[in-house]
Design goal:
Layout lengths: L1 H23 L1 E10 L4 E7 L5 E6 L4 E6 L2 E3 L13 E9 L3 E8 L3 E8 L7 E9 L33 E7 L16 H18 L3 E5 L9 H10 L4 E8 L10 E5 L7 H11 L13 H11 L2 H21 L8 E3 L11 E8 L3 H8 L1 H21 L6 H12 L1 E4 L6 H8 L3 H7 L12 E4 L3
Parallel strand pairs: 1-5, 10-11, 10-12, 12-15, 13-14
Antiparallel strand pairs: 1-2, 2-9, 3-4, 4-7, 6-7, 8-9, 13-15, 16-17
Length: 454
């Protein structure tokens, strides 16, 4: 009897020691794989921050991730068949208490790893970004820019058209590990923005003289600075970032259009929104706050006043078209410090299509017909902007030159007023202002006005 009790006590103690050891380990709840055009992101969900080691092996190519004092409690995903980097994924136990994850690779890859704090959607995460490594004798891997829609443009083949197309960079906000705002019925901002962006890109491509570049054309994350670089690589003439707004008060509704404010936001709502959107870059492992001083200096040195002015003009055109579509949240262009708008050489705007936090607007954002109308309204604003401010060497510039070459002209004399000139030629005052790019009715003697057709 005594031996039996002793044996049972020993077994119970061993079981308690095993449970205690397991309790001290970090639980790995599962993992996810996001496939981008130029990298693959592997995300491990953990109950707490985990110490880890990452190293590569050859023959065959593998990436080994050792999670110190961790155990796997969830499942592991299967890589997509078209994943350019990861071929397979397996796990095992190392040194008794450590969890080893092995990614079988299709080609050599560089890896960058970092831990992320919990947010409103996910808990603690270990993120590993894998980028194809260029080997000697091999061509460079394709990037998000090089495989995008614009790669078939005639200039790629060495034939420069007489009049070039205007390039519109269409940026679908968020993506991949970053879902953006989420509506009451589970609608994710990243899905809505991608759907609207694709519709807008198709309409841009169908319009003579315009060509679209989709910055993001799938469910993957692109760092905010990289979005600007993609637009710049394609020599974009305009950058349009598509988002869906959110606010703590679910009654708030309507569209908004933002341009960059170098000095900060113009309203409390704009400041709140800018902070929320800019925090998305933390998901990419980059804390923008650490770069604010450098960025501010660069912006000042590059003197982007002309770009900001054109951004405001383009944004005002788009807002006017959205106003015709339905309710807008703000009647005027809003300004905020969105990181994605900080290209010093490309006119840029951010369109908040509607409030996904408003139940009725969330339903509209899910509706394909409403998405079509949003895309068309944005395109109409873009076309009107370029018709008025066409860059040289484009079809829009050629069309405007033809109009002005054959148009009537009026030299202003002392005492003339704009309304009297419009009346004498039988044209609308607004049309006269628009054709001559006049903000008001102020004119000067000696100035020559182009008279629109009656």
């Amino acid at each position: 009897m005594f031996r039996k009790l002793a044996r049972n006590s020993l077994l119970a103690a061993l079981m308690l020691m095993t449970v205690a050891a397991a309790a001290g380990q970090v639980s790995v709840d599962g993992a996810r794989i996001w496939n981008g055009p130029d990298h693959t992101r592997f995300v491990v969900d953990t109950e707490a921050p985990v110490e880890h080691k990452v190293f590569a092996l050859k023959d065959p190519h593998r990436l080994v991730i050792d999670l110190i004092d961790a155990r796997l409690d969830g499942g592991l995903p299967d890589p997509a068949a078209d994943d350019r980097v990861v071929a397979g994924l397996r796990s095992g136990i190392r040194a008794g208490d450590d969890l080893r994850l092995v990614l079988d690779l299709k080609q050599p890859a560089r890896a960058k790893s970092f831990n992320l704090e919990p947010n409103g959607t996910y808990g603690h995460r270990l993120v590993i970004d894998l980028m194809p490594k260029v080997e000697a004798g091999r061509s460079a891997p394709l990037t998000a820019a090089s495989i995008n829609r614009g790669s078939g443009h005639p200039s790629v083949h060495g034939v420069r058209p007489a009049t070039r197309d205007l390039v519109i960079a269409v940026d679908a906000g968020h993506g991949g590990e970053d879902p953006g705002a989420i509506g009451a019925h589970g609608t994710r901002e990243k899905d809505v923005t991608l759907a609207i962006s694709r519709k807008l890109a198709r309409r841009v491509d169908a319009h003579p003289g315009l060509r679209a570049v989709l910055v993001r054309d799938g469910d993957y994350y692109i760092r905010l600075r990289e979005r600007i670089e993609i637009a710049r690589k394609h020599k974009a003439d305009l950058f349009v970032s598509i988002h869906a707004d959110a606010f703590k008060d679910r009654r708030v509704r309507g569209s908004s259009v933002f341009t960059l404010s170098a000095g900060g936001a113009t309203s409390e709502a704009a400041r709140w929104l800018a902070e929320r959107e800019n925090r998305a870059d933390l998901i990419g492992g980059v804390d923008l706050k650490k770069r604010d001083d450098i960025l501010a200096t660069v912006l000042l040195e590059m003197s982007q006043n002309a770009t900001l002015e054109l951004s405001d003009v383009a944004a005002d055109k788009v807002l006017a078209k959205l106003r015709g579509l339905g309710e807008v949240h703000q009647q005027r262009i809003q300004k905020a410090g969105f990181a994605v708008l900080k290209s010093p050489d490309i006119p840029s705007m951010l369109v908040e299509t509607a409030f996904i936090s408003n139940p009725s607007e969330e339903q509209r954002l899910r509706d394909k017909a409403y998405q079509d109308r949003l895309a068309q309204a944005i395109l109409d604003g873009i076309v009107e902007y370029f018709a008025e401010y066409p860059p040289p060497g484009t079809r829009f510039a050629k069309a405007r030159s033809a109009i002005t070459a054959s148009a009537r002209r009026h030299r202003i004399e002392s005492g003339d007023t704009l309304s009297e000139i419009a009346q004498s030629y039988g044209v609308k005052l607004g049309s006269l202002r628009h054709l001559n790019r006049l903000d008001g009715d102020r004119i000067r003697a000696g100035q020559v006005l182009i008279i629109p057709e009656s």
